Amino acid sequence: MTDTDRTRRPGPWDGLPPAAPVEREIARPQADEPPLDKGQNPVWAVISTLLLGGFIWFISGSWVIAVAAVWGLLVHEYGHVLAMNKLGMGPARIYIIPFLGGVAKSQRLPASEWHGVLVSLAGPAFGLLAAIPFFALFLGTGQGMWLQGVFAIALINLVNLAPAPPLDGSKALGPVLALIHPMVEKAAMVAIGVLVVFWGITNGAYIFAAFLALALFGHLLRGAWRPDGRPLTWPEAGRSVGLFVVTATACAAVGLAGLMPVTGSVGEALALGASYFGFGR
Predict the structure, then answer these.
(1) Quick one: which of 163, 169, 49 has its CA closest to 101?
(2) Rounded to two decimals, what is the model's pTM?
């Protein structure tokens, strides 16, 4: 997940004239700027990581899944950080939230909604790289337990693509829906958010469901759904949907690759993967 709803500090190139007569896409300074975000306290970051890993170990019963989930989360959030820093929103920081996950916080808001889409999809796309060590361990040892880590990492990134606040999918598809009409975005996010919360409750993910329910309620109270910055254009909307589909497909493919050596076929891998989402049980 990302957190870019913050007051920005001026970037190093703010105030310079554009090199060409095109729209400038740099982070815009805001009044009453907060002090530079120094990041999470290192001691609390370690404690939070241990609490998160221990909680995942407790509910999954697998230390491999716990290690993979924490490692995958860090790589996922670092993908957001890389994109934020590249697009002038940094210096971005990673915060670990005990029992829930993590969030990447930027120092500045995105200069455009297109930048926001890129940041939101950078986490799931980059996060898939975390599966490589677990694939390598499986190939090197032949032990199927390492494939649990592959599937866990794919699942984390795929769930984050759900278009429900505050997950990455809502920031990737929200501007596209708002381009049609702001109420279309709001209605879709609320409807999908309610479905995801219901899914979490029916599948026993009570903390996840409670977190999403509170986030959805906060979005409703906030009132303003569109962030500052240049709105998405129609060509960018098309690219946003395309990148979303490619990223979601890649996440699903990695998840199936982690299941196929166990199930032996694509069909059985799909059935097993669907069972994790509460379908076909």
Answers:
(1) 49
(2) 0.83
